[in-house]
Write a structure and sequence with these properties.
single chain, alpha/beta, binds zinc ion, 2 domains, about 400 residues
Length: about 400
């Protein structure tokens, strides 16, 4: 059984698959390869929150063992953006230049999906007598991990020993990453003609009262720590403010979007509670000052999206097996999120471990090198063989209900 990781990466990069498009063509391309290599493929049409045209996610398996080793990746990409800024074809039409394959998704993460698929395809049948290899390939990662949430709700990863999420880490083994949450606070006011602003309540000025309190009131939340992240704090930042309709109108609404990065799932709840605390404090302030009810501070909060953090037990045999193959001594964490958070949430021990530099993701002239691709295949193969030869403990995942 043989395969070319470079050709497969090229074929995947050639098919546009930003999250706003249907991912059926790029999934079909991968399936053609998987069928040719004898994988059993199950497609799971994606339901849940609508993200535009038809999407599908898939599970592909080889081997007949009761234990499973899972590899996961996404085939959606961020948009190409301004085509004129690219010096190279964003769909890899130039082929290999030097040692590089350029194109949107090359390093995030079509190259990694190709490397995982080729590594799984290249292991001889006899190695897989006691092990099943599972590829979990999704879409809509870039817009809130939608594909993996849907897949994890439908497919139970029975007796898995662990999961590699192949996002680009320069093949460093990442054992923890933060989770992310975005909330929208809608602050209400009373509109009136802007020549008599005292008759209304300016929602933007009200929002400024809230913004002024964030730093101080959330300081205790930011002071929390988790052993997997050392001195790295949970963080938050305001990512959007919008309000106002015209020069001559006092605005009656202003929305504030806040993005938080948490070290553990429980931090999301305490973050929300802290924001609710600030809102109540402002209402109480106004009440104490005798502000009439209709002019008091008023706001409500919506959760726009969230994705769980991932923490892998670095004393456990799963992490140690991967770290040994990677030749890595010290555990590492990253601050960005991946699908590993969702898989971790349903009980799978995960690591993020993939070739290429994250710096090249989402940027113009994105590329992956041939050496990165072939090294990744070698490392993934070594992991497969090590797991096949070992007696790693297994976990059965529970259903996702987030
Ligand atoms: Zn990615």
């Amino acid at each position: 059984m043989s395969c070319s990781v470079v050709n497969l990466t090229k074929a995947l990069v050639a098919i546009p698959s930003e999250s706003s498009r249907s991912n059926l063509p790029v999934m079909q391309q991968l399936c053609t390869f998987l069928y040719s290599q004898g994988f059993r493929v199950t497609r799971y049409p994606q339901n849940g929150p609508s993200t535009g045209p038809e999407k599908t996610n898939l599970i592909a398996e080889r081997g007949n063992g009761t234990r499973r080793l899972v590899f996961s990746g996404h085939l959606d990409t961020v948009p190409v953006g301004e085509r004129g800024q690219w010096q190279h074809d964003p769909y890899g039409a130039e082929g290999i230049i030097g040692d590089r394959l350029y194109g949107r998704g090359a390093v995030d993460m079509k190259g990694q999906v190709a490397a995982m698929a080729c590594a799984c395809a290249s292991v001889p049948e006899e190695v897989l007598r006691n092990l099943t290899l599972t590829l979990a390939i999704t879409g809509d990662e870039e817009i809130g991990h939608v594909g993996i949430k849907d897949l994890a709700a439908k497919h139970v990863f029975q007796r898995a020993v662990g999961c590699v999420v192949g996002e680009p880490t320069g093949l460093r083994v990442v054992s923890a990453h933060k989770g992310g949450m975005t909330v929208r606070i809608t602050v209400r006011g009373l509109s009136c003609h802007s020549s008599k602003p005292h008759l209304g309540v300016n929602a933007i000025e009200q929002a400024a009262r809230l913004l002024n309190l964030l730093g101080e009131r959330l300081a205790p939340w930011c002071a929390q720590r988790h052993p997997a992240f050392g001195e790295e704090p949970p963080t938050f930042t305001v990512v959007g403010v919008s309000g106002g309709v015209a020069d001559n109108v006092v605005p009656d609404s202003c929305t504030v979007n806040i993005s938080a990065r948490a070290l553990e799932t429980g931090h999301f709840e305490t973050f929300r509670a802290a924001l609710e605390g600030i809102i109540s404090e402002l209402v109480d302030d106004d009440t104490r000052k005798g502000v009439p009810p209709e002019r008091r501070f008023s706001a409500d909060m919506d959760l726009l999206k969230w994705a769980p953090p991932m923490v892998c037990d670095t004393a456990g045999v799963w992490y140690r097996t991967v770290a040994r193959i990677a030749g890595q001594e010290k555990p590492e964490f990253v601050t960005y999120g991946t699908d590993a958070g969702v898989l971790n949430q349903v009980g799978l021990p995960c690591v993020v471990w993939g070739p290429g530099d994250i710096i090249r993701a989402h940027s113009v002239d994105e590329y992956i090198t041939l050496e990165e691709l072939t090294t990744a295949v070698t490392h993934y193969r070594e992991l497969i063989c090590a797991v096949a030869a070992s007696e790693l403990p297994t976990f059965t995942t529970s259903l996702w209900n987030g």
